[in-house]
């Protein structure tokens, strides 16, 4: 999330909140692909994390990128904490521990997504390498303790840092020591949103397994393939995880609104300042609970948009759907994640087939799968088989969808090649995390340091 919203229109009632989501409906011709990817900055000399300030800090990278790109700065109490393309076609932001994030432009094809990612990483290297900084493509910080991890000067993160230990045991790890790749996808109607939400919620644990890439913590194996996936099991279960009501055949925008209303807030912005609102839900805010606590304590549409951005289910509904299950990873994974989901959700035949495949998967079965994946990866059991076998079927459907889309690059190739890194996981029967663990115990000599060479951008 690059910039929090300031929309001061007052909220008159529930219908406006539902309508806010419904305005995300788009005709198929306007569907786009928005890819986000995070990475850990580190100093090449010594592999230490990069702080915000100083001549060789993250602020210097942001200022260098601003000069190179001409993008508008995002400021928080006078400090640069991100950049945004002036027409809204992309943004750069900081996660709490300095994770550097590109929120990509809404694009028509994975070919464009890959070109965007290549350009971003090349620009970043041009600015960062003279400072002795590179970036690590993993799902979890492999070396640094929480105390060693820098903290970025963003007001919303200060509020979250105080709040997280009250609602779970792993929220600070989520904030400061994880990275992800996400893709944001459109829907054309409430019924289309429902189908895509249900299919993608059921298949999100499979995405976590295929992209499992966080087997180290504080310099040694952590016993997991996706430490990041495990962290999300106890971050803040009021606002994250699987949503059982989404499995209902009648699920719609109003159901999501009803759930969101009863989740505690993080903040509101008034006069450029962030006010801690973690003591009330949005419903209580609507009922006047903050009337005497913050200036102009009545809810606005900007407050609602910001609140929706602080909810963390495995698939998040805003005016589009966010696929949130994957660990961060190397360059090829940045392209593979949107290809996986676009193939399944943007082609009618593939979506029909994925819906048929998952139709009788129960909430309890999907939750059990989600619980097993952080440790077992694609070897996690499901009914009488494993996720590796499910992955074969699902990747075949995604490939079919990408073929049907027939989005060709300048050389006449379609988007199916972007699935090759996932095909390799299934063919090997081992995830990226398992490959790293094998290297750690053999050619890396039980040292974590080679990861900063082999998985760096």
Automatic annotation (TrEMBL):
Top-rank taxon: Bacteria
One Pfam family here: GCS2
An MF annotation (GO) of this entry: glutamate-cysteine ligase activity
Catalysed conversion reaction: L-cysteine + L-glutamate + ATP = gamma-L-glutamyl-L-cysteine + ADP + phosphate + H(+)
EC number(s) per entry: 6.3.2.2
Enzyme class name: ligase
Annotated metabolic or biological route of this protein: Sulfur metabolism; glutathione biosynthesis; glutathione from L-cysteine and L-glutamate: step 1/2
Keyword annotations: ATP-binding, Disulfide bond, Glutathione biosynthesis, Ligase, Nucleotide-binding, Transit peptide
Keyword Magnesium annotated: no
PANTHER family: GLUTAMATE--CYSTEINE LIGASE, CHLOROPLASTIC (PTHR34378:SF1)
Role this protein plays: Catalyzes the synthesis of gamma-glutamylcysteine (gamma-GC).
Subunit-structure text: Homodimer or monomer when oxidized or reduced, respectively.
Family membership: Belongs to the carboxylate-amine ligase family. Glutamate--cysteine ligase type 2 subfamily. Belongs to the glutamate--cysteine ligase type 2 family. EgtA subfamily.
Protein name stated in the entry: Glutamate--cysteine ligase
């Amino acid at each position: 999330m690059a910039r929090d919203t300031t929309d001061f229109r007052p909220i008159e009632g529930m219908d406006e909140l539902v309508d806010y989501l419904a305005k995300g409906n788009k005709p198929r011709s306007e569907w786009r692909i928005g890819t986000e990817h995070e990475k850990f900055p580190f100093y090449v000399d010594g592999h230490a994390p990069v702080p915000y300030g100083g001549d060789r800090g993250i602020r210097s990278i942001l200022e260098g990128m601003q000069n190179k790109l001409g993008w508008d700065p995002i400021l928080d109490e006078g400090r640069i904490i991100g950049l945004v393309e002036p027409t809204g076609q992309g943004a750069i932001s900081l996660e709490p521990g300095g994770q550097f994030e590109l929120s990509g432009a809404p694009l028509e094809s994975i070919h464009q997504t890959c070109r965007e990612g290549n350009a971003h990483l090349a620009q970043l290297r041009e600015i960062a390498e003279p400072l002795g900084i590179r970036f690590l493509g993993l799902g979890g910080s492999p070396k640094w303790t929480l105390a060693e991890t820098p903290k970025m000067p963003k007001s919303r993160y200060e509020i979250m840092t105080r709040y997280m230990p009250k609602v779970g045991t792993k929220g600070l790890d989520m904030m400061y020591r994880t990275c992800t790749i996400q893709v944001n996808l459109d829907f054309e109607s409430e019924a289309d949103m429902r189908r895509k939400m249900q299919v993608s919620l059921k298949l999100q644990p499979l995405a976590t397994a295929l992209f499992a890439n966080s087997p180290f913590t504080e310099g040694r194996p952590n016993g997991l393939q996706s430490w990041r996936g495990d962290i999300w099991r106890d971050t803040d279960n009021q606002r994250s995880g699987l949503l059982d009501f989404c499995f209902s055949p009648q699920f719609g925008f109003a159901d999501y609104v009803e759930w969101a209303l009863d989740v505690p807030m993080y903040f509101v912005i008034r006069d450029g300042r962030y006010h801690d609102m973690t003591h009330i839900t949005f419903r209580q805010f609507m009922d006047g609970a903050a009337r005497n606590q913050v200036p102009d304590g009545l809810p606005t549409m900007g407050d609602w948009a910001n609140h929706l951005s602080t909810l963390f289910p495995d698939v998040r509904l805003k005016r589009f759907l966010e696929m949130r299950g994957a660990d961060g990873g190397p360059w090829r994974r940045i392209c593979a994640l949107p290809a996986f989901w676009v193939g399944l959700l943007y082609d009618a035949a593939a979506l029909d087939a994925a819906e048929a495949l998952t139709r009788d998967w129960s909430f309890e079965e999907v939750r059990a799968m989600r619980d097993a994946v952080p440790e077992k990866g694609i070897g996690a059991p499901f009914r009488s088989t494993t996720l590796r076998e499910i992955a074969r079927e699902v990747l075949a459907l995604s490939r079919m969808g990408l073929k049907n889309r027939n989005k060709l690059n300048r050389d006449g190739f379609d988007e199916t090649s972007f699935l090759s890194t996932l095909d390799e996981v299934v063919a090997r029967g081992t995830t990226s995390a398992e490959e790293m663990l094998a290297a750690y115990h053999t050619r890396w000599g039980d040292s974590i340091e080679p990861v900063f060479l082999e998985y760096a951008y």
